[in-house]
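Tokens as discussed.
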């Protein structure tokens, strides 16, 4: 009899545990945060979706232009919130490179964000951006280090749609200026970084 009561008690506790677990699951489901609404900027990003041919050029350290060609596939992922790009390019002298990229719009920071990686880089290139009405482009900014001089460089990238089937990506960089070594305003004009264009890629829809 005592054993039977113990079995019944265990059975009741088990049913109670199942009920508590079910209620917890329902409460958790009910309290799950709703997905953030998409912004108008996500529609701008969606224009990049498709299969693209790439042409362009980059300048080597001596200033010589090196032509580039390739292709890219860009798609929306994770509820159409982010762009994912896979690219393959090759220079005129046969230097091939595969790259991956992510782009999105952070409504909390009110900023475009981008991350790029490739088989030629050890680091991730992370940049924030905003739409520039004068340039009619999304302009990203970031930083990198010159591998030879170890000097910090400012990076600026402009992404501009010329038509629905063509957009251009331009790359610029400039030396960072240390405010601590700026000349006195009475002695000279403040030193301004000199920006130079590093390259340009043209994406044409296939």
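Sequence:
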């Amino acid at each position: 009899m005592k054993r039977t009561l113990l079995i019944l008690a265990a059975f009741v506790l088990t049913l109670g545990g199942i009920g508590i677990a079910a209620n917890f699951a329902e409460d958790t489901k009910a309290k799950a945060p709703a997905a953030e609404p998409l912004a108008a900027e996500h529609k701008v990003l969606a224009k990049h979706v498709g299969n693209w041919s790439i042409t362009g050029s980059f300048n080597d350290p001596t200033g010589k232009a090196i032509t580039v060609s390739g292709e890219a596939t860009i798609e929306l992922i994770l509820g159409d919130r982010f762009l994912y790009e896979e690219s393959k390019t090759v220079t005129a002298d046969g230097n091939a490179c595969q790259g991956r990229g992510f782009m999105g719009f952070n409504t909390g920071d009110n900023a475009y964000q981008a991350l790029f990686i490739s088989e030629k880089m050890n680091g991730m290139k992370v940049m924030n951006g905003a739409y520039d009405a004068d340039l009619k482009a999304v302009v990203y900014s970031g930083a990198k280090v010159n591998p030879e001089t170890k000097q910090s460089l400012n990076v600026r990238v402009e992404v501009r749609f010329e038509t629905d089937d063509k957009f251009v990506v331009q790359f610029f960089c400039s030396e960072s200026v240390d405010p601590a070594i700026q000349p006195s305003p009475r002695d000279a004009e403040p030193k301004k970084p000199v920006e130079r264009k590093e390259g340009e890629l043209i994406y044409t829809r296939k």
